[in-house]
Amino acid sequence: MVAANKILSSKEVLIETFEIAEINFLQSFKGIKSEIVTQQFHDDVNHIAWIIGHCISHMDLYLSVFSKERKLTDKQRKYHAYGVSKDEIEQFPFSFNDLIDIYLSISEEFFGKLKILTDEDFHRIKIPDNNENLKHMMQRITLHFMGHTGQIVLLRRIFDDPFWSFVGGVSKNNRDKLRKDWIEWWEENKEAYN
After folding, report:
1. pTM over the 0.85 mark
2. Residue 86 burial (CB < 10 Å; 0-12/13-18/19+)?
3. Which candidate, 6, 14, 115, 150, has a CA 20 to 30 Å from the CA of 142?
């Protein structure tokens, strides 16, 4: 167990902060009713499945910095791209179940890659087609996930009011427990989202 007063390296802070964002992202749709995953609140508001897929598409891109390959298809990436026309996302043409399973494999591989890097790597590694280093990318993706998590929570409160707030997982023990519970929920319920 890590001592409470241990000073974390910048690498540890970046990874831990994104782990907190990610567990809140996952928690935001735990227990969601399958019928509201693609329910439109308003013509100008993306549905929850699109928001989730959009975050997954970004993680897929960031993993590709290391793996040099993408796990999502071109069609999936285009559908979840920033700025895509609302006319193009009216119908959700993918399996939500498959999308989440792809995300879980992306997440596991992404965090695995991050943990073997050094502090210096976070400053040294440059993101292709971008002027960022890995440190800045991590800060951006963390903020991006939390912003979209807030959108999902708001839509959930409008549609099914699950009475959950997105402030969990600050401690590692709590994150680990939340993730274990989330994975168990997903494995027991994912067939409902086909």
Report:
1. yes
2. middle
3. 6
